[in-house]
Specification:
- The structure holds two protein chains of two kinds.
- By secondary structure, chain A is mostly beta strands.
- Chain A contains two helices and eleven strands, in the order E-H-E-E-E-E-E-E-E-E-E-H-E.
- Chain A has helices at 22-30, 196-208, and strands spanning 13-16, 40-44, 61-64, 80-83, 99-102, 118-121, 134-140, 154-159, 175-178, 189-192, 221-225.
- In chain A, strand 1 (13-16), helix 1 and strand 2 form a beta-alpha-beta unit.
- By secondary structure, chain B is an alpha+beta fold.
- Helices cover 25% and strands 32% of the residues of chain B.
- Chain B has helices at 18-28, 62-73, 95-105, 127-133, 181-190, 200-213, 218-228, and strands at 3-9, 36-42, 49-55, 78-82, 85-91, 110-115, 118-124, 143-149, 164-167, 170-178, 231-238, 242-247, 256-259, 263-267, 283-285, 293-296.
- In chain B, the strands form three sheets. A seven-stranded antiparallel sheet of chain B has the order 7-2-8-1-14-13-15, covered by helices on one side.
- Chain B is globular.
- The chains are: A mainly beta, B alpha+beta.
Chain lengths: 240, 299
């Protein structure tokens, strides 16, 4: 293994991408077993490279010190991946479980098709955040761009800032909570009331993201599917 | 795909490094577009003089070309060759005379750009090699834009390479594809504009030139293009003193902006920006769809 691994005082394995390749980094992470002792990893000099820490299937923590490129932490399972910077297109795409935490902004399609786990974005996420999400929870502390939660099927999207045009277009059963303004709702996405069960759900997502108590749950509005696109309706025939 | 880079300097002390910085950014974008590359650099100009960037066939002897133009016009032509291109510096009052003489004595030459400060170079080939051929890293100036092309809408030729320049000191690079370029082209041609290629991106450049000729600022011209240009695009645009960025409202094509006290930088991906000085402390953000960004030096 040519990946540079140094035991630091914290016990973390350090992979410096100025001397190791992304392929070597990912190969080392893929080789980890569920009971590995190498549970802490630090990635130096990411320089916006693509597919960093993608495809991990082990309960380890990987901290990336800088900006990440496309598809960072894609397909993540069990791991915690922390990006100390911005993330490019498709961060945590198809995440299965675990946690992906972006300390800066995320580009388009954050958490696309995610099946489980949690994504926390401290900054803004741009267009199509949570597109076709299938069970992942996404908490965005800033705003999300247009077409967010497009065709979202399950899970929750929590936005502390604003949402762009066409939020929740063609939405299935994902639950959307937005604290700020919504530029427009997409087809079949409607505002729904915030009942106690929804407050409890929202509280649990905020707690998971470590910000319960920092924001007023009463300021959020809930959006969900109007369920009019579920079945063929002859009045809509020209739209199909 | 295609890759775009741009760098607009605020700090004059960086000006000697402009070419080296943009060459590095262009090199990183090779794998977004390996077909051809080009760049425009806004360097020094002389009062009353115009720089014509001309492109000729491989092996063109530009010193001889300059002498032939001088013989035909009695105009003193200063010639700075770089590989297949050369910058001819002539008195602004004699620009039309020199253009006519060039068409007469060397019809195989093509003028790819003109202006008081802009120089424009483009060729087919791997972008990093194109940059090396033209010694981009030795150039200095206030701002520059560059492009690496993965051809989609027209052939892999030098004519199809970006940037496209359709007005003095104006140029544009484009990542994407326009869906209504044929219609816009007809409108522009009806207005009297002459386009040199079949490329959709040249239509976008000509559209902006047309708007600015009609009195728009760069920012206003970019705002109007949101109404009139359909398709996918990220544009980066240079003028004599300005630098603009625009993404289509769907934001199909990627873009990253970075700003520090010393510069504004654009890249299709953050990777292109990593070697800029102080980038680790820059404000880095994704430009919003349908929002016009532009910066201008005091004229």
């Amino acid at each position: 293994m040519s990946v540079l691994e140094l035991d630091t005082p914290t016990g973390a394995r350090v992979v410096d991408l100025s001397t190791s390749s992304v392929r070597e980094l990912n190969a080392a992470l893929h080789a980890l077993k569920a009971d590995t002792n190498a549970t802490r990893w630090q990635v130096l000099n990411p320089r916006g490279r693509h597919a960093l820490a993608a495809g991990i299937d082990a309960p380890v923590t990987v901290e990336i010190d800088g900006h990440a490129g496309y598809y960072c932490a894609g397909m993540n399972k069990l791991a915690t991946v922390i990006v100390n910077g911005n993330a490019g297109v498709g961060v945590a795409e198809n995440i299965m479980s675990g946690l992906v935490h972006v300390k800066g902004d995320a580009s388009q399609s954050a958490g696309a098709t995610g099946c489980g786990g949690l994504i926390i974005i401290d900054g803004n996420a741009s267009a199509r955040c949570g597109i076709s999400m299938k069970g992942v929870d996404i908490v965005v502390k800033g705003s999300v761009g247009h077409m967010s939660a497009f065709m979202a099927q399950a899970g929750a999207l929590v936005v502390l800032g604003d949402a762009g045009e066409a939020l929740g277009d063609s939405l299935y059963e994902a639950k959307l909570f937005v604290r700020g303004s919504v530029a427009s709702l997409g087809a079949d996405c409607i505002e729904k009331g915030l009942r106690d069960e929804h407050r409890a759900l929202l509280a649990s997502k905020l707690e998971a993201a470590g910000i319960l108590g920092e924001v007023d749950i009463g300021e959020f509005r809930r959006y969900g599917s109007g369920r009019t696109l579920y079945h063929f309706h002859v009045d809509n025939v020209s739209s199909y | 795909m295609c890759g775009i880079v741009g760098l607009f300097l605020k700090d004059k002390t960086l000006e000697p490094e402009l070419g080296a910085l943009i060459a590095g950014m262009l090199g990183v974008m090779c794998d977004r577009g390996p077909d051809s590359a080009g760049f425009a650099v806004y360097g020094a100009g002389a009062p009353g003089m115009v720089k014509l960037t001309v492109r000729g066939p491989e092996g063109t002897d530009f010193a001889v070309l300059g002498a032939r133009i001088e013989a035909a016009t009695d105009v003193l032509v200063s010639v700075s060759p770089r590989a297949t291109h050369a910058v001819l510096t002539v008195p602004a009052a004699e620009e039309a005379t020199v253009r006519a003489a060039l068409a007469e004595v060397a019809p195989e030459m093509r003028i790819v750009g003109a202006g008081s400060r802009m120089e424009l170079y483009k060729e087919v080939g791997l972008p990093s090699q194109v940059a090396t051929r033209f010694a981009l890293d030795t150039m200095s100036g206030t701002h520059a834009i560059g492009h690496t092309r993965m051809a989609t809408e027209s052939a892999v030729t030098t004519d199809g390479a970006h940037p496209f320049s359709t007005g003095p000191d104006q140029c544009l690079v484009h990542n994407g594809s326009l869906s209504n370029h044929a219609g816009v082209r007809r409108e522009l041609e009806r207005e009297g504009l002459r386009l040199a290629t079949d490329n959709d991106s040249e239509v976008a450049a000509a559209y902006l030139t047309h708007r600015m000729k009609a009195g728009d600022t760069l920012g206003e011209a970019l705002t109007h293009s949101l109404d009139d240009l359909d398709g996918f695009y990220t544009f980066v645009v240079g003028t004599e003193s300005g630098f603009g960025v625009l993404r289509d409202p769907i934001a199909c094509k990627p873009a990253v902006l970075a700003e520090t006290d010393r510069y504004v930088a654009f890249g299709s991906e953050y990777r292109a920006l990593v070697d800029l000085p102080g980038i680790e402390h820059a404000k880095v953000w994704e430009p919003e769809p349908g929002k016009v960004y532009f910066w201008e030096h005091a004229a």
